[in-house]
């Protein structure tokens, strides 16, 4: 039985009465307490939803914005290639942020959706899971044409872009030292 994709995880599968998250991009692997209901679906208690949200929040805040181990795995262990991909990713971030802000100023929701989608994909390839998630949320909000919510989510994306750029030298240094 497949559950729909939810924030904080890509998907879950049902195995022998227990859920198991598929952790393909290093997104939080916390499994909520789910209780079978008479119609065969699964519910989650409000307490476990809160605990899950709180745990995922602290996990995301304390985690590096770019996950080098996952990036290298996605590059089939080729650290120099992973470093070049990461460098390319970081160099486009300021330009992408500027384009998103310009589209928001113009209330160009079509352009915002395309830019958020493209950045979501680039962030996924660069193992910037949180940025990818935030771009997905921005995409959803943009679809509603709510400019106030769009600005709020754009601020979150912008803050995460700043984190990625600031952490890049540390991550790059760690990855480079791992190859020597």
Q: Which ranges are low-confidence, i.e. pLDDT below 50, for 5 or more consecutive residues?
A: 1-53
Query: What is the end-to-end distance?
Result: 45 Å
Q: What is the helix fraction of residues, given as a range?
A: 55-70%
Walk across the major sheet and give the strand order: 1-2-3
- Biggest β-sheet description: 3 strands, antiparallel
Could you state the order of secondary-structure elements as H and E? EEEEEHHHHHH
β content, as a range? 5-15%
Shape: elongated
Overall pLDDT, averaged? 76
Structural class: mainly alpha
Number of strands: 5
How many helices does DSSP assign?
6
Explain what the structure shows:
The protein is 64% helix and 10% strand. It has helices spanning 46-62, 68-74, 79-105, 109-125, 129-143, 147-179, and strands spanning 2-3, 11-15, 18-22, 34-36, 42-44. Helix 4 runs antiparallel to helix 5 (129-143). The N and C termini lie far apart (45 Å).
């Amino acid at each position: 039985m497949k559950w729909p994709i939810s924030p904080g995880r890509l998907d879950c599968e049902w195995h022998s009465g227990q859920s198991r998250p598929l952790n393909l991009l290093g997104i939080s692997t916390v499994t909520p307490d789910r209780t079978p209901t008479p119609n065969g679906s699964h519910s989650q208690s409000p307490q476990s939803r809160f605990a899950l949200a709180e745990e995922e929040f602290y996990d995301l805040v304390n985690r590096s914005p770019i996950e080098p181990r996952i990036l290298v795995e996605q590059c089939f262990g080729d650290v120099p290639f992973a470093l070049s991909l990461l460098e390319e990713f970081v160099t486009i971030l300021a330009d992408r942020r500027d384009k998103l802000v310009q589209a928001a100023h113009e209330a160009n929701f079509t352009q915002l959706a395309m830019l958020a989608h493209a950045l979501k994909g680039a962030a996924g390839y660069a193992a910037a899971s949180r940025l990818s998630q935030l771009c997905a949320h921005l995409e959803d909000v943009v679809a509603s044409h709510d400019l106030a919510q769009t600005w709020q989510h754009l601020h979150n994306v912008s803050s995460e872009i700043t984190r990625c750029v600031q952490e890049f030298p540390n991550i790059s240094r760690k990855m480079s030292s791992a190859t020597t």
